[in-house]
Design goal:
Elements: H1 6-12, H2 22-35, H3 39-43, H4 46-69, H5 74-85, E1 89-90, H6 92-101, H7 108-118, E2 124-127, H8 134-139, E3 142-146, H9 149-155, H10 162-176, E4 184-190, E5 196-203, E6 206-213, H11 224-237, E7 242-246, E8 251-255, E9 258-264, H12 265-271
Parallel strand pairs: 6-7, 7-9
Antiparallel strand pairs: 1-3, 2-3, 4-5, 5-6, 8-9
Helix pairs in contact: 2-9, 6-7
Amino acid sequence: MYPLSFKEFIYFKNEKLENLSEGLILNLAREYLEYGGLPEIVLSEKSRKFPVTDEYFKTFLTRDIFERYGIRNRSVMVDLIRLLLNSPYATFSKSFETLKSLGHKVGKETVANYFQYLEPSFFINLIEVCSPKVKESIRASKKVSVIDNFFIKRFSRFSENLGRLMGNLVFLQAKRMRKSNPMLEAFYWKDYQQNEVDLVLKDGLRIKQLIQVTYASGRDEIERRETRALTKAAEQLKCKDLLMITWDLEDELKANNEIIKCTPLWKWLLASKAV
C-alpha cells in the first residue's frame, strides 16, 4: 500500500476538485509536497504531524525491519536509513565505507543484506540507471526514493529542497502507474558528462517517456543543463516524448530541434493513470 495519491489527498481534505481554483489547488499541492500522503498525518493538526511521523517511523523500524529480519545490531540499520534519507544517491560500497567511518564494525555482506531488507518494506526505493548493460546498471549509483515526502522533511537535511521533494512525488506516482500497466518500469539516466534525466519510463522494451523535474514557475527559471540533459537522453534512448514537470509553468520549449512539454506538478499528478 502506498500513501495517498494527490487525488485521494484532496478527497481526504474534504475538498471537491471541480470547486477548486488553481490557487487553492496549488496550496493543496504545496501541503502534499511537504507533508506527504500518510492518512493519519493528512488529518492531523500541524502541531501533531511530527509526533505522529515519529511513531510511524518507530513502528516501521520495529515491526517491518528489526522483528521481521531478526536484526541484532540495530544502530547500523538506523544509521544506514539516516544516510539514505540524506543522500540523493547510494551504493553498497559507499554506504559500507561511511558506516565503517562512523565506528560500526560491519561487513559488506551485512550492509548489502540491509539494503535488500529495506526495499521490500517499501520505505526506500533504489532507482537504477537506465543502461543496456546490466553490469553498468548494477554498479552505478542508485537514486534514493522514500515512501513518503514527510519522512524526508522530518529526518533529512534536504527537507527544504523542493526539487527533491517534487522528484520523490513523481517517482512514487510512476510506481502507482504500474497498477494500470504492470510492464512499466522507472529508471533515471546519466551520461559520462554528468547530464542527468530524473525519470525514464520504460514500457516493455520501449522507452515511453523522459521526465525532468524542476521547481520552476517561469521559462527563465529552467536551467539550460536540464533541457540539454533531456535532449541528449532523447538522442541516445531514441525517445521523442519529453516532459518537464514544473511547479506551475505550462508551456512548450524547443531545444536542439526537440519539443519539451512543460506541465505543472499538480496537473500531472491528477492526470496520470495511477488510481
